């Protein structure tokens, strides 16, 4: 059997793929990799198709043993990693033999983003639940028994779909990770609830990432955003990237595992290509928001999509 | 028949089609009719659809379906769905044990309305409710049609843990917690039925548009149901 064994998962590691599409009407969150671009490129590097599952490692400390010969890649805003004690680069394919060990530094060393993606040829093979292998811990399903990985877990690997790529990912498809990113966002769906002053404040002042930052959402702290008619709406559909503002005027960016409906005003939605930067925020980081319109956002989306496909197809 | 709707932008891969500004069965039915027509169109590039009280959220991949094409599709579907029939929702009976350890807030709700807990159970079990939407957690139904005499604000401090199966009230809504989760609704009872079980062939008991009737049961009946 092709497999790997988890020696130490680190603080929080889960099996994730691109997400669970088609079940929002039943209250099932998207889930999937927070940094979708990192997992996607990781899969491309090792020759997987886009639906393959990898491991989302949070705050490093991950230690695993290979029980077969495979190709693998590490992507994300990653510090150091060791294969059999020797340093290896991220964002490129490596080969491992049965018995080899992989170890990620404990966080932080140096200070990078929290999420690293481990992609392996064939992908992590757990039974799909509602057409996805993504772990949804709060719902208790997907991934391995609906839970985070534990020491001693033996993970089966699927059969490789294609040959690995023998070249590093080019810089132009690696997200520009930063401890002070500028997040581009499209106003709406409820931007008409913000006062002109609130809009000026939100798009000009910095916001600090608080301790409440996980796969459900990233709560920010900064100048309050003025909502003359309050923060409540009749609950409607939400999506990852939406910036919700609560009664205290503070914003939260919804994450991959955020709930499917919500009763708070959503003043804007972060564009999809900048969600990779959101995924790598940690408490203490500082973000700013830049308003873009749908046409600017579409150009950015198409450019990223073209560059990613162009390089690997 | 012309139908008023607004398109709200939800980033570069989502839109919301909004039909009105209130919680209203006619508006909600409008949303579900659009859902069913859009589903049958099978437009490539539409990744997910989420009907809520008064709007339909659409997730799409602009690489496959442009914003312009999506708008055109939505407009056509809104038009044809304005007169389309609707799937008749199933009627699902849900046994509930009201009060005691299963309904820790029933006394508060009763006191709020100058009622006794038995009245709360009786009034709550009387109507046939419609599922306006599913949200919050997998399988959580937002039910419309709560008796005015039971409309009670949320708890000021949400509970960290609400048991799976708990039946609650929040303002004009009533609903059921499918899995254990935090929550601020006033809990008046609990059902032994499982609304969501990912291991089942049909993981979800309810979907938007279905109808629900609560059937009061005793503590012994609750235990019997739970054994099954």
Short description:
The complex is a heterodimer of chains A (313) and B (228). Chain A has helices at 36-46, 196-202, 275-279, 294-312; strands at 3-8, 12-16, 54-58, 63-66, 70-76, 81-83, 86-87, 93-96, 101-104, 115-120, 154-156, 182-187, 207-213, 217-221, 232-237, 242-245, 251-254, 261-270, 286-291.
Any overview of this molecule?
- The complex is a heterodimer of chains A (313) and B (228).
- Chain A is an alpha+beta fold and 313 residues long.
- In chain A, 13% of the residues lie in helices and 31% in strands.
- Chain A has a seven-stranded mixed barrel. Chain A has a six-stranded antiparallel sheet with strand order 7-6-9-4-1-11, with no helix packed on it.
- Chain A starts with a strand and ends with a helix.
- Chain B is α+β, with helices and mostly antiparallel strands and 228 residues long.
- Chain B has two domains: 6-83, 2-Layer Sandwich (Gyrase A, domain 2); 91-227, Cyclophilin (Beta Barrel).
- Chain B has a seven-stranded mixed β-barrel, surrounded by four helices.
- Chain B is elongated.
- The mean pLDDT of chain B is 93.
- Chains A and B meet through β12, β15, β18 and α4 of A and β2, β3 and β4 of B.
């Amino acid at each position: 059997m092709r497999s790997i064994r988890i020696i130490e998962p680190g603080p929080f590691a889960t099996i994730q793929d691109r997400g669970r599409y088609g079940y929002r009407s039943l209250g099932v969150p998207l889930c999937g990799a927070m940094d979708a671009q990192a997992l996607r490129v990781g899969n491309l590097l090792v020759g997987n198709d886009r639906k393959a599952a990898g491991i989302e490692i949070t705050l490093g400390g991950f230690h695993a043993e290979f029980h077969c010969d495979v190709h693998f890649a590490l992507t994300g805003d990653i510090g150091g990693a060791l294969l059999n004690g020797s340093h290896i680069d991220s964002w490129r394919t490596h080969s491992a033999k049965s018995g080899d060990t992989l170890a990620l530094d404990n966080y932080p060393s140096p200070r990078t983003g929290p999420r690293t993606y481990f992609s392996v040829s064939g992908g992590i093979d757990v039974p799909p639940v509602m057409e996805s292998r993504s772990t949804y811990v709060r719902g208790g399903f997907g991934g391995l028994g609906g839970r985070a990985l534990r020491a001693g877990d033996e993970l089966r690997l699927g059969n490789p779909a294609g040959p690995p790529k023998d070249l590093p990912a080019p810089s132009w498809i690696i997200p520009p990770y930063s401890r002070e990113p500028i997040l581009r966002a499209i106003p709406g769906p409820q931007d008409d609830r913000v006062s002109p002053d609130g809009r000026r404040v939100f798009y000009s002042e910095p916001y600090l990432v608080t301790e409440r930052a996980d796969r459900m959402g990233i709560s920010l702290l900064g100048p309050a955003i003025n909502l003359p008619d309050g923060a409540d709406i009749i609950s409607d559909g939400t999506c990852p990237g939406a910036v919700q503002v609560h009664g205290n005027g503070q914003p939260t960016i919804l994450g991959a595992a955020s709930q499917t409906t919500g009763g708070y005003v959503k003043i804007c939605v972060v564009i999809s290509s900048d969600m990779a930067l959101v995924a790598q925020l940690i408490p203490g980081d500082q973000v700013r928001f830049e308003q873009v319109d749908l046409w600017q956002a579409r150009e950015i989306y198409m450019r990223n999509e073209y560059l990613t496909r162009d390089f690997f197809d | 028949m012309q139908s008023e709707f607004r398109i709200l932008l939800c980033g570069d891969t989502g839109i919301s089609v909004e039909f009105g500004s209130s919680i209203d069965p006619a508006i909600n039915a409008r949303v579900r009719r659009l859902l069913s027509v859009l589903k049958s169109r099978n437009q490539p590039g539409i990744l997910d659809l989420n009907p809520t009280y008064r709007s339909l959220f659409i997730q799409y991949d602009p690489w496959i379906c442009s914003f312009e094409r999506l708008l055109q599709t939505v407009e056509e579907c809104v038009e044809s769905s304005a007169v389309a029939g609707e799937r008749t929702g199933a009627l699902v009976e849900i046994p509930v044990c009201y009060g005691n350890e299963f309904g820790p807030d029933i006394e508060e709700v009763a006191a709020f309305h100058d009622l006794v807990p038995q009245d709360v159970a009786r009034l709550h079990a009387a109507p046939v409710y419609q599922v306006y939407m599913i949200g919050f957690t997998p399988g959580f139904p937002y039910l419309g049609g709560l008796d005015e005499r039971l409309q009670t604000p949320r708890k000021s401090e949400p509970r960290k843990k609400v048991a799976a199966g708990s039946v609650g009230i929040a303002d004009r809504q009533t609903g059921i917690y499918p899995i254990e989760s935090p929550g601020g609704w006033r809990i008046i009872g609990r059902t032994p039925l499982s609304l969501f079980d990912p291991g089942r062939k049909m993981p979800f008991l309810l979907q938007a548009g279905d109808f629900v009737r609560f059937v009061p049961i005793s503590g012994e009946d609750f235990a019997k149901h739970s054994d099954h």
